[in-house]
Amino acid sequence: MANGDVVPGQHGDVSVSSAATTALPIGTVVTNGGRVSATRFPGQAPTTPPFTREELIGLDDALKAASEKALIRFSVFIGDLGSDAVADARAVLLRAPEPAHGTLIAVSPNTHDVVVVSGTKVADRVNDRVAQLGVTAAVTSFRQGDLIDGLIAALRVMSTAAAVS
To answer: Are the CB atoms for 96 and 14 separated by under 8 Å?
Structure first.
C-alpha cells in the first residue's frame, strides 16, 4: 500500500534528513515530496486504522494538496489524546519533521476531541479562526461517522484560509 502511512506527523511535503530515514522500518520510504510511504508484506496484519485503501489515498492526496497550497506541512493524528488533548497534540506535532512549519489536526475518536495545533513559523496563518473553520468543516462528517471525509474537508478549508497570497 503505497498511499502514505497514517502515523502522526508523517504527512505533508516534508524535508526529512538522511539520518532520519535510516530509522525507518523495512518497507518504508520517504518519497521525493517528503512524505513517508509504507507497505505491508503478504500475510502481515494491517497496522493502520480500519479505513479502505481509497479513503487512505484520498486523505494522502488531501494532505499533499493542502500542504502545497498553503505552504504548511499538514499532518493528521487519529488516536487517543489522553486527559490533556492540547498538550498531547503538541507532543505529536513535535515528532513531525520540521514541526515549526507544520499544523496537526488531531482527532481522538473515543473522547470526541478535535485539536488543531500549529508550529511557531505558521501560527500566524493557522490561527484560532482558521482552526475553528477546519473543525467546523469536519464536524458534520464526524457526526455521520465519516472520519476521513471530515479530515479532508478540514484540510481543504484550512489550507484555503491559510494560503499565501
So the answer is: yes
Q: Position 17: which residue type?
A: S
What is the residue range of 58's domain?
Answer: 53-162
CA-to-CA distance for 62 and 12, rounded, in angstroms?
9
Cβ atoms 148, 58 nearer than 8 A: yes
Q: Which amino acid is it at 76?
A: V
Q: What is the pTM of this model?
A: 0.71
CATH number at residue 61: 3.10.310.50
Establish if 39 belongs to a structural domain.
no
Number of helices (H), then strands (E), belonging to the chain: the values are 5, 5
pLDDT tens sequence across 73-115: 999 998 889 889 999 999 999 988 889 999 999 998 888 899 9
111 DSSP 8-state letter: T
